[in-house]
Amino acid sequence: MYSKLIISLSLIFLASISIQCNGKYLRTSQIDLIRQLDAEQESGDIDGIQISCTLLIRKTVLEDHMEEEDLECELHGNYERNIVRIENIPEWLTDQLGADDITSGEDVLNCSRCSVTNDGALLIPNHAVVSVERAADVRRRLNPKTTGNKEVLVIYVEAGDASTTTSMDDLSDYIFGINANGGHEREINSYASSRSSVTNQFYDCSRGKFVFNAFQGTINDHSIPHGVLKVIIDSNVVGVDKNDVENEVTRVAKIMLGVQNVQNGLGSLFDHVIISLPRGTVDPDHTAGWYAYGYINHYISVFNSVANYYSFVMHEVGHNLNLGHSGENDSYGDKSGMMGYSYAREDWPKMCFNAVKTSELGWFNDGETQDLDLADLTDPVTHNVYGLYAQPEHNNLKMIKITLESELPIFISFNLQTGPNIETQEGANEVLVHHSYTSESMNGRVSPGRSNLLVKLNNVDRETFTKTLNGGTVEVEVDTIGDGYATVTIRWNSDTDTSGSSSTHNPNPTPFEITSRTSTPSSAPRCIDDPYSYRGRIDCATFDVRGHYCDTYGELESNGTTPSIACCVCGGGELHS
Q1: FRET label pair with 352: which of 23, 205, 210, 482, CA 20 to 30 Å apart?
Q2: What pLDDT, on a 0 to 100 scale, did the predictor assign at position 77?
Q3: Can you tell me the distance from the alpha carbon of 223 to that of 473, in angstroms, rounded to the nearest whole number?
Q4: In whole angstroms, what is the distance from residue 485 CA to residue 396 CA?
Q5: CB-based contacts of 222: which residues, under 8 Å, 6+ apart?
Q6: What phi, psi does 546 have (nearest 5°)?
């Protein structure tokens, strides 16, 4: 069955696009192009063109730590360009994107009387007829395979004026843990190892459920040693739109591997494709540079020569696996897992995904999670919640999901600092309370959800998390923290009058409180990072627990603030009781 929404467009979008002519960019009014297409269609000078493409949401992290979200389209059929932007996006489609009602990698856009421009845009004229369908047999499946063995290709790029900064051997080492001789320098499932790789970390964090294998072999007479393919493009890349460079690289790679006429291109050969571009490409919509981006529910992730930083790779591949960000005070603020901030370090930090993301990936074993419906809870319940990587490993309870009709689910977990999570950057050995803003919980569609870290609880003050919901108040109290687990008590204080409760999703979650049940007047002062330092440029979490690099950063802000003033790990910050 296909669910179609067909709308005749009558929008005028006055932006302009760039058309490349003889190596130079000419500025042309988009409205002129749209009017020309409309006039030709109305006069019968051209036939209606049917173009189909799969909608993709792309998440880009910029160098100023801001996030960019774009709606792109992967063309079906024989086009030189693989993924293109959409010009003159209809308002209803933009609204669906804002409402998380687009399923990236699955929803298909069909457009009659559309065209693909020379500079790589799907241009939608005013009188085009557009439909969005969710096909049962679409080639890229939602809920991508997050378990099993994966074939992975890394692309090293050599352009006319620049090459990928990290060598092919080093890319193979940092991503797959394979040295130049083909041996494994970083042993899989080696919790005690101080070095890690993307392959190692995925294996350990999934407890063997997700194996990120380097493809090694020959395709179409092109050897791919240790998972890395060199792609040579004739064009220059410095100062060129990163999207244009990505498309040129994939075009050449498809020809090299003989899949230029195969639907899904490189995705027909590999489960994941990591493209490491040379430095110097630009994001035309932002003056800030960019680090990396990944397409949601897809196989391609692209890096601005930072593919040797494995936290960046795990983060963007996480987007490929349909994960959204982990936030706290901002989109990336939850530093307890890999879907928060990424770090410009080659094999640090050894950290996994938070419990919400681990659950979405399907990496919990049977019996390790429990759903707790507050509507059925009459008496307090107490559970031992174990850290995910506690040793010896048993199928003990590791996450509690608290649900109540019309409310966002609340997740309770214990962030044990051990094994592959030994360098978690926030909430180590504390009970974490998360909200999950998955689209499934809001509109029945499954698309990348955002998790939000609400609070970190310990048993020093027997802290209690309290939140008012429709129909009552839920309390989560940490009783004790033992060897690899935390004892947690959950109470539901139901209102006597629930007639005013809403049966619809509450878009503005109610605030919460943290209280202490001890009789001591106050706990020992804790160091708090200065929240106004490095905002938008760098975060205190950049500096690891040993304080490396604290002295190498100067006055990055006009107020003269330095890490030694702002960051606890560097000896700064403020003490709060």
Answers
A1: 482
A2: 82
A3: 62
A4: 10
A5: 229, 256, 257
A6: -95, 0
Is 188 in a helix, a strand, or coil? coil
Tokens for 307, please give them.
């593919």
pLDDT digits (tens, 9 = 90+) for 186-213: 444 444 444 689 999 999 999 999 999 9
Quote the strand ranges of 410-484, DSSP E. 410-414, 431-437, 450-457, 463-469, 472-481
Residue 560 and residue 409: Cα distance in Å, rounded? 42
Domains parsed from the chain with CATH numbers: 4-134 (2.40.50), 148-322 (no CATH), 355-516 (no CATH), 526-576 (no CATH)
> C-alpha 24: how far from its chain's center?
35
What backbone torsions phi and psi does residue 410 show, to the nearest 5 degrees?
-115, 135
Whole-number mean pLDDT of the chain? 79
Cβ distance 366 to 359 under 8 Å?
no
User: Which helix or strand (DSSP H or E) is residue 316 part of?
Assistant: helix 310-320
Residue of 364, 368, 372 lying closest to 385 (CA atoms): 368
In the chain, how many H helices and how many E strands? Answer: 9, 31
| Angstrom distance (rounded) from CA 146 to CA 362 | 7
DSSP letter string over 160-178?
SS-B-SS-HHHHHHHHH-B
Q: What is the pLDDT of residues 230-264, one digit of tens each?
A: 999 999 999 999 999 999 999 999 999 999 988 88
The end-to-end CA distance of the chain, in Å, is 60
Which runs of consecutive H residues, i.e. helices, occur in 376-465?
Answer: 439-443
For position 5, what pLDDT does the model report? 38
pLDDT at 534 > cutoff 50: no
> pLDDT tens digits for 286-344?
777 899 999 999 999 999 989 999 899 999 999 999 999 998 877 888 999 999 999 88
